[in-house]
Amino acid sequence: MRLPPDTALVVIDMQHAIDDPRWGPRNNGGAEQAVAALLAAWREAAMPVIHVRHDSVEPGSPYRPGQPMHDFKPEAAPLAGEPVVAKSSGSAFVGTELERLLDDGGQMTLVVCGVLAHNSVDTTVRHAGCLGFRVFVVEDACWSVDVRDRHGRTWPAEAVHALSMAHLDGEYAKIAGTAATLAAVRLTAAQGAWKRQRRAARG
């Protein structure tokens, strides 16, 4: 796995609202820590980070602005200067400035994490793939919840997550783990430092 130095980390909907009990059981209990590790690596490498915040227009939604759970989770809180894109639909590209931000920065490779894997992550990744971006999804830095189908069967979060990743893999994105992604970022950072040292040595 190789990442260009302008690869953007896109963190989707990591707000307290996702902890509301209405969502039900989830998988990937360590996903918040994985997201925090990715953010730390991107920041250390001085690579671009974009946060996506869901501003629901549905009454009573915990994602609705003004609700106490609308704020970002501490593991994924933006730092000063990191852009925040506000959306009100599944895809982070609909009605937002995300595509313009990426185009302005010349960023054609995206690494995506956040929630929910079968909802906003899936929709955003599919949209990005259709727009021509090269996309990686970090499967253990996002999660799914149990889903009840129209026949009354409940599909456990782990199965929902696995199928979501399978649908995206190879068609709209490449699926990766946190460990491999962190290794790729460190390699990119090391290569950048080596190139800067060579330029400085040449005077």
What can be said about this structure in brief?
The protein has 203 residues and is of the alpha/beta class. Helix content is 36%, strand content 19%.
Description of the structure:
- With 203 residues, the protein is α/β, with parallel strands linked by helices.
- Helices cover 36% and strands 19% of the residues.
- It is built from 5 helices and 8 strands, in the order βαββαβαβββαβα.
- The protein has helices at residues 31-44, 98-105, 117-130, 157-168, 178-202; strands spanning 8-12, 49-54, 84-87, 109-115, 134-143, 147-148, 154-155, 174-176.
- The strands form 2 sheets. A 6-stranded parallel β-sheet has the order 3-2-1-4-5-8, with helices on both faces.
- Strand 4 (109-115), helix 3 and strand 5 (134-143) form a beta-alpha-beta unit.
- Helix 3 runs parallel beside helix 4.
Helix coverage percent: 25-40%
Give the amount of beta strand, in percent. 15-25%
User: Any low-confidence stretches, pLDDT <50, length ≥5?
Assistant: none
Q: What's the overall geometry?
A: globular
Individual helix count: 5
Give a count of the beta strands, DSSP E runs of length 2 or more. 8
Strand order of the largest sheet: 3-2-1-4-5-8
Q: How would a textbook summarize the main sheet?
A: 6 strands, parallel
By helix and strand content, what is the structural category?
alpha/beta
Question: End-to-end distance, in Å?
Answer: 32 Å
Q: Secondary-structure element sequence?
A: EHEEHEHEEEHEH
From the structure provided, what is the oligomeric state, counting identical versus distinct chains?
A: single chain
Whole-number radius of gyration?
A: 17 Å
